[in-house]
């Protein structure tokens, strides 16, 4: 394994899309940000310099950081922000991840423009578990706001309603040629007939699950969240914010120009059905069409299409890539995920339903981030920063997915509560979507771990019937999973990575509303089962 070093300078730089020029936060002036390349098991050191007027933290999404939460990144969970004028050297400790991950800011809404791909190749002399592709191409789905995203966030928090939607979705930073203003910069992928390409896709969108499709071509999924999957042939993919999907594209159609496109899948809430496009251009002599063919998408609200794709993913689960899904759980957790309402302060009115304000909760607790980070407080035994009573179950049972819910359940409690896990406990966690105010998918992301997705379904989880249908043979290994609207998802993992680990919905508006919680995984008994000490340059609050 190698040590690789990267330099990230956060600064304001100016960019133009949709004929609008604006200044925004970027790393090294690039949008999307630089791609990090490494091999399995490498140590990547990133020197992050803050030369902007805004606090920042950077998170290495999907990297487990064994015994080393200090560089994980979430603001006020594992660190205080890197303040303007300061520097923090982050150690990105790779272990068994192999495939595509990404990095992004984990501070307020700055990930809107501060993100990039993190590509982890197999170790030298090792091959992919699929035929070697002719070329590899990262494709990052993102968004463009004509307005300043910090202002969009502040206005959204003040209004109590839904945030403004972006002005365009992006493929590799470009809105595509359905937007006349940005046409000439459309992302183009030039392919040779007969060759196969490995596409490494990241959904870096803020608030939407996306469909993606290429006109006239099927794709073959081979991995997700830096773990290989069984080959899955499909004509579209569903990808949630935080998730990555690796797929093969066979250039096997008559040479021409074809659109690749991505469109919102939205279940409830405000959405914008804008489509972003890129172009697949075959190399060769032919007359290109005046306008390439657009792929046909599932309906924007087609939950079945979204769920069907996700539930077809399977681990390789063979000799070379075995799985180790816990067959029993010593720790059973049941977490309800809810959107809730709260009256507006004073006599003001808010823009949510009933003129109240939106918030969100897990087991009826709305996460309030502290002013000192939880990791620091845990390590140095600082009292009064967090409490250790995050509940294993919701405070009461109800019919989670019915449409009308008594008003009391709209009122969660604020809290900075952590749930403590014993070292090496085997955890089963069932996420139960609820319909307290609105039933909506929640792409749940866990830091510090990958987990096996052993089951999911629509409606209320049935603890007597559903566990007998779990897939313990080849469940996919992921770190972000969309819990379907009005449904549930069960995951399992072994708590073998001591530290402080954030778990939250990867919709940015839901995190802002408090849809997250924190696990503390205790140290094991032997010295190499405990957290490593912090680096000397940890940012201070
Ligand atoms: Cu990709 Cu806590 O996030």
TrEMBL record:
Membership in a protein family: Belongs to the multicopper oxidase family.
Needed cofactors: Cu cation
Co-factor note (free text): Binds 4 Cu cations per monomer.
Places the protein is found: Secreted, Extracellular space, Apoplast
UniProt keyword annotation of Hydrolase present: no
Positions of the Plastocyanin-like domain: 13-124, 136-284, 390-524
SUPFAM superfamilies named in the record: Cupredoxins (SSF49503)
One term of GO molecular function: copper ion binding
Gene Ontology CC annotations of this record: apoplast
UniProt cross-references to InterPro entries, sorted A to Z: Cu-oxidase-like_N, Cu-oxidase_2nd, Cu-oxidase_C, Cu-oxidase_fam, Cu_oxidase_CS, Cu_oxidase_Cu_BS, Cupredoxin, CuRO_1_LCC
A biological-process GO annotation: lignin catabolic process
Enzyme class name: oxidoreductase
Catalytic activity: 4 hydroquinone + O2 = 4 benzosemiquinone + 2 H2O
Role: Lignin degradation and detoxification of lignin-derived products.
Main location: secreted
Annotated organism of origin: Handroanthus impetiginosus
Protein name per its UniProtKB record: Laccase
Signal peptide residues on this chain, from the entry's feature table: none
Keyword annotations: Apoplast, Copper, Glycoprotein, Lignin degradation, Metal-binding, Oxidoreductase, Repeat, Secreted
The enzyme's E.C. designation: 1.10.3.2
């Amino acid at each position: 394994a190698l040590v690789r070093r990267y330099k990230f300078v956060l600064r304001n730089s100016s960019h133009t899309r949709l004929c609008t020029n604006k200044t925004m936060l970027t790393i090294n002036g690039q949008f999307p940000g630089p791609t990090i390349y490494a091999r399995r098991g490498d140590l990547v050191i990133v020197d992050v310099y803050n030369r902007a007027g805004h606090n920042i933290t950077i998170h290495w999404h999907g990297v487990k950081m064994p015994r080393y939460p200090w560089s994980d990144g979430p603001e006020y969970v594992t660190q205080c922000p890197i303040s303007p004028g300061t520097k923090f050297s982050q150690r990105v400790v790779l272990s068994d991840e192999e495939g595509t991950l990404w990095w992004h800011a984990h501070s307020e809404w700055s990930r809107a423009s501060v993100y990039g791909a993190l590509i982890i190749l197999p170790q030298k002399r090792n091959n992919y578990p699929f035929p070697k592709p002719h070329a590899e191409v990262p494709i990052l789905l993102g968004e463009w706001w004509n307005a300043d995203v910090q202002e969009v966030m502040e206005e959204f928090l003040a209004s109590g309603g839904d945030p403004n939607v972006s002005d365009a979705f992006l493929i590799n930073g470009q809105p595509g040629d359905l937007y006349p203003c940005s046409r000439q910069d459309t992302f183009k992928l030039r392919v040779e007939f007969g060759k196969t390409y490995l596409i490494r896709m990241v959904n870096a969108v803020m608030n939407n699950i996306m469909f993606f499709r290429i006109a006239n071509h099927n794709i073959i999924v081979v991995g997700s969240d830096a773990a290989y999957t069984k080959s899955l042939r499909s004509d579209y993919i569903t990808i949630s914010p935080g998730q990555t999907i690796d797929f093969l594209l066979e250039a096997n159609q008559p040479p021409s120009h074809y659109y690749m496109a991505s469109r919102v899948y939205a279940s409830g809430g405000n959405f914008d059905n804008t489509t972003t496009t890129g172009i697949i251009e075959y190399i060769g002599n032919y007359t290109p069409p005046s306008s390439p063919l657009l792929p046909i998408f599932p309906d924007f609200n087609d939950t079945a299409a979204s769920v069907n794709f996700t539930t077809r993913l399977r681990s390789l689960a063979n000799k070379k890539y075995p799985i180790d899904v816990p067959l029993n759980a010593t720790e059973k957790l049941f977490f309800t995920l809810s959107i809730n309402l709260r009256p507006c302060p004073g006599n003001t009115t808010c823009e949510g339903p009933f003129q109240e304000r939106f918030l969100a909760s897990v087991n009826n607790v709305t996460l309030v981030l502290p002013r000192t980070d939880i990791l620091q407080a845990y390590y140095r035994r600082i009292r009064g920063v967090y409490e250790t009573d995050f509940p294993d179950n919701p405070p009461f049972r109800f019919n989670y997915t019915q449409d009308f819910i008594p008003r009391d359940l709209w009122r969660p409690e604020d809290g900075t509560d952590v749930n403590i896990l014993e070292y090496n406990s085997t955890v089963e966690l069932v996420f139960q979507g609820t319909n307290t105010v609105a039933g909506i998918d929640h792409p749940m992301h866990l830091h510090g771990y990958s987990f096996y997705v052993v089951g999911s379904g629509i409606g209320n989880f049935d603890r007597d019937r559903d566990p007998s249908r779990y897939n313990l043979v080849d469940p996919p290994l992921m770190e972000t999973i969309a819990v379907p609207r009005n449904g549930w998802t069960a995951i399992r993992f072994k708590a073998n990575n001591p530290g402080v680990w954030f778990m939250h919905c990867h919709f940015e508006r839901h995190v802002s509303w408090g849809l997250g919680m924190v696990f503390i995984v205790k140290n094991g008994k032997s010295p190499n089962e405990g957290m490593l000490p912090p680096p000397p340059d940890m940012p201070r609050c």
